[in-house]
Amino acid sequence: MIRVLVGYKVKPKVDILPLLLQIRASEMTYPGFVSLENLQNRDDEHTIVAMDTWEKLSDWKAWESSTVRQKILADMADKLTEPPKVTVYTIMPTVGWFIR
Fold it and tell me: Residue 49 and residue 36: Cα distance in Å, rounded?
């Protein structure tokens, strides 16, 4: 499995929640989607991170390049101070770390 962090810097006084909900609803229809959480920085309410979990990198890549996602990002562009930053991580198994 992989975890994808997508960072958004939102302009002041902008409500981005409807677009985040639209992303979630759309992602849920894609093969390999596992979960999504949106996190808001407690010290900077304009910084939001979407934390996605996908079965495989190829599943994320299909969503990342989809026309649906591109359309939502285009709708979001004027609400952000910079383009979203995407970082992909592989989830490391921890079973057995404590067994020696």
Answer: 10
Q: C-alpha dihedral over 28, 32, 74, 82, to 10 degrees?
A: 110
Tell the burial category of 94 from Cβ atoms under 10 Å away from its Cβ (0-12, 13-18, 19+): exposed
CA gap 98, 100 in Å, rounded? 6
pLDDT digits (tens, 9 = 90+) for 4-25: 999 999 999 999 999 999 999 9
Token pair listed for 84: 């979203």
- pTM score, two decimals? 0.88
Instruction: Determine the residue type at 71.
Output: K
| Residues 67-77: tens digit of each pLDDT | 999 999 999 99
Q: Evaluate whether 63 touches 30 at the Cβ level (below 8 Å).
A: yes
**Residue type at 11?**
K
